[in-house]
Amino acid sequence: MGIAVLYGSSRRNGNTDILAARLAEGREADHLYLSDYRLQPIVDYRHEEPGPYPDDDYHELIGRVVAADALVFATPIYWYGISGVLKTFIDRWSQSLRENRKEFLAGLAGKPAYVIAVGDDDPQVKGQPLVQQFRYIFDFTGIRLAGHVIGTANKPGDILQDAQALAVVDGWRAEWRNG
């Protein structure tokens, strides 16, 4: 199936999108712009009788994610964390755990995942908790963190001046071509 690229930005063609698109270039990719989908917050039934879950686009999206061979999580660093729409999508994984835990976790187990995050307020330092959050999520679900990059950018296109972030993404692409 290729890779599923989960774009967590609230707008298209921003700095995070530029890095993610660069990584996916030349590969079979399912580009999932989460802001284009209807995603409701999780309904937490852990301590009560389960009721209906939201009727939205979650099942379509998670099906496409599970079908992919590799995952890319692309998020701007909003207030020192994962974007709201990406966090909402990941929160909904609790629904999949309740609906069919074994199948859901088996579908994610061993999948390589890349995290792309871009921010402007000392992101190399202040973006580390975001990366750690992904590590915990991946550890729980069996996803393999294949790599992460934190880019520095603010204005549209600024990421093209971040030679280090570009080199990391280009290195991943080279590994894919050779691997």
In short:
The chain is an alpha/beta fold and about 180 residues long. It has helices spanning about 15-25, 60-65, 85-90, 95-110, 125, 130-140, 165-179; strands at about 5, 30-35, 70-75, 110-120, 145-150.
Walkthrough of the structure:
The structure is a single chain. The chain is an alpha/beta fold. It contains seven helices and five strands. It has a five-stranded parallel beta sheet with strand order 2-1-3-4-5, sandwiched between helices. Helix 1 (15-24) links the parallel strand 1 (3-7) and strand 2 (29-33). The radius of gyration is 16 Å and the shape is globular. The two termini are 16 Å apart.
Q: Assign a percent range to the helix content.
A: 40-55%
- Low-confidence parts lasting 5 or more residues at pLDDT below 50? none
- Shape verdict: globular
Sheet with the most strands?
Answer: 5 strands, parallel
Q: What share of residues are in beta strands?
A: 15-25%
CA radius of gyration is 16 Å
Offer a few descriptive terms.
single chain; 179 residues; alpha/beta; five-stranded parallel β-sheet; 7 helices; 44% helix; globular
List the helices and strands and how they pair.
Elements: E1 3-7, H1 15-24, E2 29-33, H2 58-67, E3 70-76, H3 84-91, H4 93-108, E4 112-119, H5 123-126, H6 128-141, E5 144-152, H7 163-178
Parallel strand pairs: 1-2, 1-3, 3-4, 4-5
